Amino acid sequence: MTRWCWSPGTARFHMDADRDVFRCRYLDGLHDYLGSLGEEDLHRAYEMGRDAMVAGLGILDVTAWHHEALRSLLARQQDSECCTATDGAGRFLAECLSPFEMSHRGTREAALALQRMNEALENEAKRIGQALHNEAGQLLASVHIGLADLAPDLSAPERKKLDQIVLALKQTEDSLRDLSHELRPMILENLGLLPALRSLSEKLARRNHLSISIHARGTTRLPAAIESAIYRSVQEALNNVARHARARSVRIQLRCGQRWACCIVQDDGVGLQRGPRGAPKRHDGAGLGLIGIRERLGALGGTFRMVSRPQLGTRFLLIVPVR
Question: 275 Cβ partners below 8 Å, 6+ apart?
Fold first, then answer.
């Protein structure tokens, strides 16, 4: 069988050659099976379906071969034999398509498992955020009370040092509060995606001296899993901008329709540097973050795309089906 080569100059040639080879194999295999109705010839259909899937050919190709082969064979049959031939051809086609069906089921089950894992991780993040807010907050409050009790007995220089310690504790308290809110974004649960993105953008802009604008259209509430996936993806995209882009401004566009939700995060940073073969170079953390975005959206049937040019910024495009 002709191997499918992905070389740009020869990909189309090899694809056409594969189609011709499979078309002939399918016609011969169907003819042999209708003549014998044996399990061995039926198993050839499964092997052809598996080989077609490995070569990158699709279900529409297989059904086109089947239609062509069946029309050719029925033209040679008598009317009394057409019914038997049609039934046998249906079984042959079903067997040939079974590898595609198994692959589809495996992909669907993997996506469902990944979606459940993301939900479990989201719940665990919320639990940790709640613990940080309650337990760490209470501990810091006790430390503040203890330091306040010490203040009257200290000299002026010691009080000055104490004030510096109190200031550091307040900064730590603010950081823990922001972290707990990021882990458990109550505004996302209570008010929805757009208010949550605005709150996230304000905090990140203040922390990283960025200008972040949000433009939205269609702000109805989405299913919780979709809102969470878009929020976490935008959060990772903004973190990536803050760490690596050296940008001054970011523009977020949110579109929520009846069938699709789309979000674009565009920055004016340095873009991704290119390696010697044109491949984008990025830090390991950014790479893992982008993989996480793709997996999180993919579990919901969504897609993620990133377009970047050196010195011209980076655009993140997120699309998720609503239903």
Answer: 281
CA 53/CA 101 separation, integer angstroms: 11
Nearest to 263 by CA among 291, 235, 223, 292: 235
Q: What is the largest CA-CA distance in the chain?
A: 112
Please identify, in words, the CATH class of the domain defined by 185-321: alpha beta
Q: What is the pLDDT of residues 165-224, one digit of tens each?
A: 888 888 887 777 777 767 777 888 888 899 999 999 998 898 888 999 999 987 788 888
The total of other beta-carbon atoms located within 10 Å of residue 74's CB is 14
Give the residue carrying structure tokens 């239903």: 323
Domain regions of the chain by residue span: 11-109, 185-321
